[in-house]
Design a protein that fits this description.
The chain has about 625 residues and is α+β, with helices and mostly antiparallel strands. About 40% of the residues lie in helices and about 20% in strands. A hairpin with a 2-residue loop joins strand 1 and strand 2.
Amino acid sequence: MVITRKLKYDTPRLVMGGVDIGVSQEVKLLGLTIDNRMTFKRHTANVCKKALNFYKQLSRAAKIHWGLNSEIIRIIYTAVVEPTIMYAASAWAPATERIGIRKELDCVQRGFVQKIIKGYKTVSLNSALLLAGLLPLDIRVREAASLYEIKKGYTRRVVGDREVEVPIPYKAAPHPAQWSPIIFEIVADEVALEEHLDAGLNIFTDGSKIEGKVGAALSIRHGNEEIGTRKLRLEDCCSVFQAELLALAEATQETIKRKHASCSVFCDSRSALEIVTNTSSLHTLAILVKNNIARIQSQGKTLNLYWIKAHIGLEGNERADELAKDAALKLKVKSKYDRCPVSFVKRAIRTDSIHEWNRRYQEAPQGSTTKIFFPDAAKAYPVLKNIKLNHKLVQMFTGHGGFSSYLHRFKCKESPSCVCDSDVEESALHIITECPVYSRYRNDIETELNIEIKRNTLSNILEEKINRDNFLEYCEVIINKPALPLLIAEGSTAGNTMHNTLTHTRPMLVGDHTKTNLQVPISGITPAYDIDRKINWFQFRFVCATPYIKGLRSSRPWTLKSIIQVTANPIKQQNNTPKRPQRDEPNDTRISRELLLYTEIRRPQSTKHHVVETRPRGRNYNLARTWLISLARG
């Protein structure tokens, strides 16, 4: 294979034993497909094909209402799909700058993130990635490549003039035959501590990171009396784990210097003690501690290691913690240890990736509804981490769901208008912030949160932990509520009251679904009033013989009863108020400031009530969503 980007070049002719050796256009080396122009298109296509095969199997077992939940899908994606795609990322990462390769990666990632958030297939990739808390695949590939290059010392982009902490080579580590077993004991409380205090030397160690600065300290004691202290400062990029290991190394070094025959070292970092006792560990500081322990044993001294619980009032541990914080904040000396941990490098690379993802998210034209709730991708992650997403909340955050404006785009509804106003489109943002049908719920939540719900305040509400749960509960109630129907009267518009509309016109029940398109006359209207002479409910009749709605195929008369509630407080039945028959009284008697609707259908002379459900079922909308009945606006 000839690797070149020249348009014109001479192909070499190779002959071995009189046989011509052909020139290949690509070669596969350790799972990496390399083409002659170094575009890595073939390799990207191969890994994307593998990932799509995973998705085909996963999609069969992950549906919205059943199957694998979101967290399981996320684990499969991060543990299987991403490593498959990012294999040998340091070699082909520059290829992700190409738009074609980025589109291939986006196509693979789109299916998985939609399964994670349980969203519609029309949800944009940017919105789905934000809600799933994932980064685009091309950014993840460049992250892996940057980490590899920094570890190998090929670039100083993040670490600058600092040296990265890497495991020491095997040949530099002591031979396993020279290592003696190292163990540590656990001290549970102050009583146990008194039993394990050595009559000779006792050293308490601790490490601390406070206000971005790192320090370590020793409290050296003879019995219970402090005879010395040591303060150590580390570079700001170092971690608390490194500080704890450095304190252990200094404690063992102090034991070597002193003449005491035995010494006990008390440390509150179990992870530091475990890496010291691990025979296969190649950490730089852990090897230093092991070498010091070997020297102590060669001197004929005894060293005992103990783990103590932090911050339970143990005098020696509290003293060491105080010294470590003082070393971090006030010590003005050269750093005892300055190697940059890999965790710092990863955090710096991830910060750059998030900035790039945030820039791409804000500049993209897609996801306009999601940007109202989460205008900044960097700030959205800690918020979404504390939100338990479900398919209803995803519909609200994306605007892709059972809203008239969305359904009208796919010809599932004749009109995109809302029931409150024929000139206003029904969208997620409209019903949450503006629709007067849900103003009772909105007023209640605004009073509870002490903030007005508008489009420009939604992001602030979600960022505040105190208001977030109540607001999301309000949104779920609104999303789960059925779209209230609209009364259409033949030959007239909405009047000032429902009574005038029903008694002075001939109203019609109008089908909502394009396949039904029903118009059925209503007759026999009987209004009922409460004690304040406000319309309470109506009874009227219609006759229908349509084959489209299950349950209404017969021309036998049916009675439709509706409760039209117009008062702000629940209606109290008075002695002089005629009561409705118990059989006809619906269970839901909640009262609203708006004209809310509850419907119930039954056959005449029948004791069994058939309650109309409001969620869509089957190919057609359910009866309560298919038929438009309702309220007039003043």
